[in-house]
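FAQ: What does the model actually see?

It sees only this:
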Amino acid sequence: MQHRTVGDLMTHSVVRVQRGTLFTEIVHVLQEHDITAVPVVDSADRPVGVVSEADLLAKAAKQPPSPGGRQPAPVGPVTAAKHEATTAEGLMTSPAVCARPEWSVVEAARTMERHRVKRLPVVDDTGRLVGLVSRGDLLRVFLRTDRAIRDEIVEDVVVRTLHESPSAIGVEVTGGQVRLSGSVRRKSLVPVLVQLCGSVDGVVSVDHHLTAETDDDASAQHG
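And it is asked to produce this:
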């Protein structure tokens, strides 16, 4: 099975700023390119952090309230430092959480969730910036047609990988939801088939009503 990787989905032409880029220049970059964050790179084009709209707003929040307005709540040391920052180096969230081009969609999605970020700079073997992948980019795998998903399951999973008869296993796909029916040769193949179907790009869920010609699990227990 061929799975699309981060390298397939990422944006290759990436806008970036340097450590010394000024606050107002960063705002102009975000506005000009209609983006919400930008990687910060060092002199070797290696990501060292990311400046987002949230980082810039932390700086803007330092402005004194209008007369009679509510006093700002106390802030932590990181936010306080951003209040005083004037360049990307002080404003950015660091270190940069990066991905590799060969990563799977699952690896990238889990990294985003674990670090609570919306995008990942993508780096090569030397650590240089080669792309940027966002949540929206990863979700593109779910734009596959039901027909394309079904064809891959039948041809790559059922026939080529498991060597099962396509006439013995029914595969229905609706809105990315897969329903399997019919019979496999051995009971132990059922969870394998379900797992492989779930790993196909574009699959949202897998439901099955499969039976088996032989219960090799029971045979192994009595053997």
